[in-house]
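Below: protein 1.
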Amino acid sequence: MVMRLKPEEHTRVAAAIAAAEARTSGEIFCVLARQVSSYRDISLAWAAAAALLIPLVLIPLGFDATWFPGLSDSWEAAHLAARDLTVGRAIGAYAVVQGAVFIGVYVLLRVPPLTRLVTPRAVRLQRTRQAAMHQFLAHGLHVTDRRTGVLIFAAFADRQVEIIADEGIHSRVDHGVWAGAVEALTSGLAGRRPAEGFETAIGMIGDVLAAHFPPRPHNPNEVPDRLVEI
C-alpha cells in the first residue's frame, strides 16, 4: 500500500520544523519518497542467472527435444545424417526453456516484496543515499548562509532513512548523534505513523542543532518548513 500523508499531517510536520528552527540557525527539510528505484536491473540480473543455471538441472535427466511437442518428429531417424537436425532441435528446445525461465523469474521478481528480498541491502542503501543527496541539492540545502542545512529523507518502500547534514554541521557534529533520530523515524514509518516519526526525529535534530548552532540575531528562514512527498 502506498503511504500518503494527510494535509493535517503535513501541517504537523511543518509546525515541528518551525518549532525546532526557532531554537537554532540551522535549517531542516523533510522528504518522503515512496521508492527510490525500480530495481529493474536487479530483477533482470537474477532472471538471467536463473535462465543460465536452472536449465542445467535438466541435462542429467536426459533432456532432449522430444519433451516439447512440435519440436521433434514422431519418427526417429537412425541415419547419421540426421544427427545435426536432432542436435539443432535440442538446442532450440533448451533455448525455449531458458526463455521461459527468464520471463517467469523476472515477472516473479517484479512483485515488490520479492524485489526487496532479492536486492542486496548495500544496493538499497546506496541508491537511497544517492536519491537523498539529489533532494538535498535540489532543494538548496547546500546554499544556506552558514552551510547548516539538514535533510531528513525516508524511502518508504525501500525501508531506508537517511539524514544528510551540510559541511557546517558535519564538521562540528559527530555523525553518530543522528542515530536516535533515524531510529525514531524508522519506528514511526514501520508503525504507519509517519507524521509522528518525523515529528520525533525533527525534535531530536532540533536539540542537536540548538546545542551547536544557536539562533542568530537575524535568523531568516532560508528553506521552507515543509515535508515533500515524491
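Below: protein 2.
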Amino acid sequence: MTLNYEVIHGLDFTTEEITGCLKREGLLSLELEFSKVCNLRCVYCYASAGEALSNELTIPDIKNVIDQAAELGAKKIILLGGGEPLMYEGLRSVVEHIYNKRLKQNIFTNGMLLTRGLAEFLFNHEVSVIVKHNSNTPEIQDKLVGVKGSYDKIKQGFEYLIEAGYPNCKGQLGIQTVICRQNLKEIPDMWIWARERGIIPYFEIITNQGRAKEHNELHVSNKEIRKIFEELESIDETRFGHKWSPHPTIASFTCKRHLYSCLVNSQGNIQPCTGIDMPVGNIRQEKLKDILKKSPVIQKLRNIYNNIQGECKTCEFAFDCYGCRGNAYQMTGNYLASDPACWLNKKGKKASPIHANTPHICQ
C-alpha cells in the first residue's frame, strides 16, 4: 500500500510557502468573522455566539480587509462567521469578491440554512464547505448545538451540497466535529463514514473558552483523547492509506497557522487565532500590514519555535509541532506556554511528527 500524507485543504501550506511568507512578513491565509449572530447555541462555542455585537464590520470593511490580505500574499480566506456565516446578509457579495480575486475560500457552517440554490452558488464559486456534524444520534446532535430539530435540518443542508456536486477538487466538503464525552464512542464510525465518501473529517478537541467553560460534562481526558486519535490514525493507515501522527489538537493535522495567518473578528479586531482572543489591533484604525508588523504578540508567534516555553521547547518534535496556542492561552494565560492538552510531553510512547513537506490532496 502506498501511503499518502494528509493535508486538510484550505488550512495547510507547504514548508516552502510558509518559509516564503515569513521572509516577506506576509500572509498565506486570513480567518474572517462576519457577525456573532447565530441560529444555534452550541454548548462548546468558543465565541458564545448568538446575538450580533455593536459596531460589527460592514460589507465594505470586509472586502477591504480581504484586499489587504491579498496584497500581503494571502491565497485563501477562511469564512468562520463568528456566529453562522449563512445568516450574514452580505455573504454572496463577499464570496463573489473573493472568487473574483482568484483566492481560494473555505466556509465553516452549521448548514441549517442551506438551500439548493445556495449550495449551487457555493459550488459554482469553488467554495470548500465544512459542515457542523457532531453526532449520528439526533438527540445528541441537538443537545450539543442547543436547538431541537437541528439534526434533520443539518442533514438536509448536507444533502443539498451533495446534489450540487460536492465534493470535488475545486470545492471540497468536510464535517466539523468536536470530540466530547457525549460523542466519544461514535468518533471512529463517523471518521470512516466521511473517508468512504471523500469527505474531509475535521475532528478537533474543545478549547476551554466561551460556553465550554460552563459545561464540564463535555470534558474528555488527555488519555482518552490520545487513545481516540491513535485509533483514527490506525484506521486511516490500514483502510485508507493515509499516514499521519496522532497529536492534538485536530486529528491528521498539524497547526502552523501562527506562522502565516491571523483572525479578523466581527468588530475588526485582529487576533492570532480564535483560541488566542487577544486583540492586537483593529483594521478600522490601522492597515493590516502595519498591525502584523508592529504587534509583539504576532512577531513572537511568527518565531514560535524559538519563543515557546516549558516542555514543548525541549520536546524532540519541537521543530515541527508547537501544540495548540489557544489551549495554552486559555488554560494558563500564557500563549507561549506548553499545551496542557498535549500528551506528547508526558512519559511513554511518543509519536513521530507529521512530515514537514506533506502534499495537498487536491490542487
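The longest strand covers residues 29-35.
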